[in-house]
Amino acid sequence: LKMTFNQFKHQLITSGLKLVAETRISQIEDNKSRDTQSQLLHSQLVAAVARIDDLENRSCRNNIRILGFPEGIEGNNPSSFLSKTLPDLLGFDSSEPLEIERAHCSLGPRPLPDKRPRAFIMKLLRYPAREKILRAAREKGCSVWQGNNISFYPDLSRDLQQRRQRFTEARHQLLDRGIRYGMFYPATLKVTFNGVTSAYTSPEEVAAFIKSLP
């Protein structure tokens, strides 16, 4: 009887431990399942945000952001003002129209007189015209209109601007070394050295390349 009781006691203990173990395993599996679902949802959210950002940037493909013109200088017709001003500023033939689809000041309240004026957002009818303006602005280096420094930039989303800004230090180093480079959509830096062009998608990759130079 004593052996039977001990065996019964052992079975109870074993069964209890097994139940605890099974419960714990079930909890772990549930947590793992929730973690997997959370990771999946996170991945889907990141992908969705990336698609939205890409759509936003593609919708602005023909846009140029122009900084430096005094606030209100355009009057009631920004397109007319820019179509008359930019050809002379950038050295274009004034007989060739810029074909501006529309133009407006960037969103936001009108700044105070001592604050930085809002940018112009200009949308061209054709992408080549946009590239022509940006290329002319780069080649000219410094555009001055009635004592105001005028700058031209692609119209990009905030996220893409930040991604490109991460390359700023690397671009300065390449410039100091006289190495040719260019930024390509969405945020790829192409570097040409000794006749070979390489593409980098992160500033760390560019830093490693610069470090490898003699």
- The CATH fourth-level homologous superfamily of the largest domain: L1 transposable element, RRM domain
At CATH's second level, what is the architecture of the largest domain?
Answer: 2-Layer Sandwich
The profile of the biggest β sheet is:
5 strands, antiparallel
Total helical segments: 6
Strand order of the largest sheet: 2-3-1-5-4
What would you call the shape? elongated
The helix fraction, in percent, is: 40-55%
Mean pLDDT reading:
86
- Series of secondary-structure elements, N-terminal to C-terminal: HEHEEHEEHHEEEH
How many domains, in number, for the residues?
Answer: 3
- State the distance separating the first and last CA atoms: 88 Å
CA-based gyration radius: 30 Å
Number of strands: 8
**What low-confidence regions span 5 or more consecutive residues with pLDDT below 50?**
none
List the helices and strands and how they pair.
Blueprint: H1 2-59, E1 63-67, H2 78-90, E2 100-105, E3 120-124, H3 127-140, E4 143-145, E5 148-154, H4 158-165, H5 168-176, E6 180-184, E7 188-193, E8 196-200, H6 203-212
Antiparallel strand pairs: 1-3, 1-5, 2-3, 4-5, 6-7, 7-8
Helix pairs in contact: 5-6
Structure, briefly:
InterPro entries: Transposase_22 (IPR004244). This protein is of the alpha+beta class and 214 residues long. It has helices at 2-59, 78-90, 127-140, 158-165, 168-176, 203-212, and strands at 63-67, 100-105, 120-124, 143-145, 148-154, 180-184, 188-193, 196-200.
